[in-house]
Amino acid sequence: METFDRNFTGERILVEHRKDSIEDYVIYLMHIAAYKFAEAFTRGRRVLDCGCGSGYGSARIAMTANSVEAIDVAEDIITRARAEYRRANLNFSHVMATEPLHFADGSFDVVLSFQVLEHVTDVDFYLSEVHRVLSPVGILLLATPDRSARLFSWQQPWNRWHVKEYSSASLASTLGNLFPWVDIQHMSGRRDVIDLELRRYKRMKWCTLPFTLPVFSMAQRIRFLNMLHRLKKRPSTILVKRKEFEFDESVLQIGAGLTPSLNLVAIARKARADRP
User: How many helices, marked H, and strands, marked E, lie in the chain?
Assistant: First the structure.
């Protein structure tokens, strides 16, 4: 399978590039909104951040959590995060996607998994490891793109890094195999901001046809998407007036049944609960 540089895909959100365009800024705010939502669950708790990326979210959580272990499969990004974010209760480590996590059973009260599941090939193994390292009353908070807004019902992901994108029903079913209590919520927000993403989704789902049709294998799909990205000229950085960025993550909300939905946000408990 062909490979490509994550630094140019938007899959790694680097803080210094968050304002390269208004679209980049909205994607960054979607990540921040997920971590902001998590703070009510992580305060004073032992937290594992799976797929921490460049580490800014883990550092935010560490400000109020008891401790944060942050892991990622990209060794270079872990090296960068260690150098940039230093706190006594925050630790970054590199992991291999195909190997068990290096933590004992029941090590964490909360596991965060933001924008990771869509990249995972062996979902059963990934979630079983998350389940194993959670305490008996532990909570998984998981955010993943909502395919209902991004794709036609029959379409494979146009994001070349994504193995699978989930609907509310498929995510609930997948998590329900291990977690007895699952609540699926949605990320939406101020319509002018949401529309920036919806327009991008519409453009991408049309321009990547026909190779995102289900008749093509994953290898064929990725080969075409790689070719498309090579043909596409990288736009030069354009300085945008500050007034275009005069909003923050507060324009985004997470709640039950919000539409249009950009992300699914799942709260999954290892034990049954009467309420969230």
Answer: 8, 8
